[in-house]
Each structure stands twice: as C-alpha cells, then as structure tokens.
Specification:
Blueprint lengths: L1 H7 L14 H9 L4 H7 L7 H7 L5 H13 L3 E5 L7 E5 L1 H4 L2 H11 L13 H11 L2 H4 L4 E7 L2 E8 L2 E6 L7 E5 L1 H8 L5 H7 L2 E5 L1 H7 L16
C-alpha cells in the first residue's frame, strides 16, 4: 500500500505510465506525451532558447512547452544551461543520451511520408528540413558528388556537406560554399520534395539561389520520397 501511495504521488506524466516492461512501452513513457518528441526534434541540431523552440512549433502553447521541457529534463533527455556573455541567455540542449533519439525521429519521419494523408504544405521548421536531408538522402545519387551547400533560413544558417557518397547537415556558416539557398523551409522543401521548379520559386520571390546552378539542379534530386502506401479498399 505504501508503494502505491508513493507511485501515485508523482507528477501527471508518471501517473500515465504504461506499467509494461517492454522497451517500446518505456520509450513512450519517456517521450510519448504530445509534443515531447517534436521538442526533441527541434534540439537535434544543438541548443535553443525557449522562444526559438516555441517559434518553430507554432501549435504549442508556452505552458505546454514548459511542461514538456520539464518532463524531458526530469527524464534525463534535456538539460538547461546559460550561455556565457555577451549572450547570457538560457538555452535547452539534449543530453548525450537524448541525441541518440535521432534515428527514432528519422525512421518515424520516413515511414510517415508514405501515408496518403501526409500533407507536405503544412508548417515546416528549418531544423525539421535539415533533419529530413539527413533522413532522405540517397547515397547512390550522391556518389561522385563533392559539394558544400549553404542555407539561409530566417536568422539561421546551415551547412550541408556532400562527399564520398555521404552527407552531413548541421548549423554552420555559408561562407565559401559552392551554392547558397535563401528562403523559407517550406519553399526549399517545395523544390526538393514537391518538384516545384527552382525558377518558379525565384520568380515568386520565395527562394534565392546563388552560386553553382547546375549543382542546385542536382541537389534537389538527391532526396527521393518512398512510394505512398496503398489506401485500404472499401468492401
């Protein structure tokens, strides 16, 4: 009875545990709350301030974000720290163990793109776009290609490096790159995943491309989407 009292006296998330020894069940205990995995996704490229996380998750409230960060911190997946001067801002960052969740995000993302109900026109963060490059890059299509490609998305800059059939995508300077895409994450995704011609996006003012245009045309073909799953037939 005493043990039951101790168990029930925890926070709300502890009262909703699955009570199942399976590792999958415990994973859901850790990151199964609504928004929790997306908060982790936004930290996969490095630390962020609370306001930046919220800006990149437009559907989340400040109260819910606070709760999720507290829960992830309590579970050992996130830490908070203060940046040194002149920034002196508090940021949230994944722990080493927290970063190990990236393959979960990748596999779920790739699997879900096969859904007939997936809507690629919905909001997309810059971090989500870069993680999609890590996830969807086709090694065979990258063979023989060597390039450094910059991305300017709002106030953030990112660097994609391709070589030896492999690719990295991370925050970084665009200085000295072969090519720079400037625009919103949805506009860049439209060129890469939606088949929208680069020239059409430039004409709309949604995208700016500077540098090697042949490389730009090649880059947008490196991330083929898997085929859609067949919708169940009515009987």
């Amino acid at each position: 009875m005493e043990l039951g009292k101790i168990t029930d006296s925890g926070n709300a998330s502890s009262r909703r545990r699955y009570d199942d020894a399976c590792g999958t069940a415990h994973a859901l205990d850790l990151i199964g709350e609504r928004w929790a995995l997306l908060v982790m996704r936004e930290l996969m490229l490095g630390p962020k301030r609370f306001s930046d996380i919220r800006a990149d998750l437009p559907g989340i409230s400040a109260n819910t974000l606070t709760q999720r960060l507290e829960g992830l911190e309590a579970n050992g997946l996130v830490v908070r720290r203060r940046l040194p001067p002149p920034a002196s801002a508090q940021v949230y960052e994944l722990t080493e163990w927290g970063y190990e969740a990236e393959p979960i995000v990748q596999v779920m993302g790739r699997w879900a793109t096969r859904s007939p109900a997936h809507d690629p026109t919905m909001p997309l963060s810059a971090t989500s776009l870069m993680l999609s490059f890590r996830t969807m890059g086709d090694r065979a299509r990258m063979q023989g290609l060597k390039a450094r490609i910059g991305f300017v998305i709002g106030a953030e800059t990112f660097l994609v490096t391709i070589g030896d059939g492999a690719m990295t995508a991370e925050r970084g300077s665009v200085a000295g790159t072969d090519l720079v895409f400037t625009g919103t994450a949805p506009a860049i995704a439209g060129a890469v995943y939606g088949g929208v011609p680069i020239e059409a996006l430039e004409a709309e003012g949604a995208l700016k491309v500077e540098g090697d245009r042949k490389l730009a045309a090649k880059f947008v073909t490196l991330f083929p989407l898997p085929p859609k799953a067949e919708a169940p037939r009515a009987t």
